[in-house]
Structure formats: C-alpha cells, structure tokens
Amino acid sequence: MTQRVALATVMDRLAIDAVITGYAVAVDDGAWSDYGALFTPDGRADYRGAGGVEGPAEEIARWLQETMRLFPVRQHLIVNRRIDLEDLGGYTGDRAEVLADYLNPMCLDRRAAGETDAPGKADSGRPRGATPDFVTGGRYTFELHRAEPGWLIRAVTVHEKWRRTPGA
Q1: Helix ranges (DSSP H) in 41-165
Q2: What is the pLDDT of residues 34-62, one digit of tens each?
Q3: What does pTM read for this prediction?
Q4: 18, 10 contact by CB (below 8 A)
C-alpha cells in the first residue's frame, strides 16, 4: 500500500466516522433535515429490531420526529465502530459497512404522557437530576456509499440487544 493510498484510507475512515456521529447528533437533536441529508436518495432505515418501522429515510425521519416527541431528552452514544471498507486490490472502493454498538438513554416528557407539571420540574417536564426513563442498547449496521458530496448512508439497521424501562 502506498503512502497516498494509506492517507486516502485514513481520510475515508474519518469521513465515515463523521457521518455516523452526524447520525447520532441529528437524532438526539431532532434535526430531521440533517438526518435526511446523511442518506443516499434511495437510503433506507430499519428500526424493526427495536420495535419500530422500516422504510425510505425520508419517511423514517417523519416517523422519528413524531415518535421522539415523547422523549425530549435523548443522548445516544455510538461506540466500538468497526469500519470495513471495500477493498479493490489495495485501493479503497466506494462502499463500506460499519458495525457499531449504541447506548441510548432517554427521558420521557411527562406532559406528553399526560402528567401535570409540579414544582421543581425542569422545562422538559423532567425533575432536575432525574435518571432516564428508558435506556436501550444494541448494535447498528450501516451500509455507506461514496457519492458526489462524500460518504452517505444507504441503509441503517438497528439490532436492539436489551432495554430497561420504568418499573422493570
């Protein structure tokens, strides 16, 4: 592998890592147009492994927007990223697969759940310093393709391994 190819491979890995981080930030911040911009035009998302739906990224963004209203506080972390770049005889191709574990704590919006605000509640309806109502962990499988603007998600699949809910 030449130094130029090695540098290109490192740059591809960093660009892919930025897409995966952008995915987590878009979901956590509710930036649904940013979420959609991370996908190829035919991009799909599959959340059935976590009790959700599957479909074109544009439709899934609308579903997430509605579903995540129940959880105004969310912060999922995507870790242990294993990036497998297409190998074209020592040169990086235009496809990659990423397996990455996630941990996703979320706090329920008490008002959306029909509870009334009480003194000492934060603006989100959560008591200050409260622990998450819902925590889940699992693994993502991302399929990425290199396109004109750079690396984009062609497909993401969620494989939930565990969850903890209130009263569990």
Answers
A1: 57-67
A2: 999 999 999 999 999 999 999 999 999 99
A3: 0.85
A4: no
